[in-house]
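Hey, sorry to bother you again with one of my protein questions. I've been staring at a protein lately and its backbone has me curious. I owe you a coffee for this, so here goes:
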Amino acid sequence: METGITHLVLRGRGELADVLPWVKVCGYDGMEVLLTDDGDITPASTQADCDKVRRLFDAQGMSLQSMCIATTKGRGSLVTGVQ
């Protein structure tokens, strides 16, 4: 079993590049990332943006465990598009 933490409680410490090394030092195996309006991953993120996030995790030897949707614009289903 892996231990993890959500970026939701750490967002005040910065974006992923700043937070992941600290999370690793604290002993966690991975982290949940946020899908936000203005963070590392947004609804407008490209494959290149997602690859960059994957590389950040890989560089720390950590797993990207899940994603928390924390957007404020255009609330609705990301699957169906229904608002």
In short: The chain has a mean pLDDT of 86. Helices lie at 16-25, 47-60.
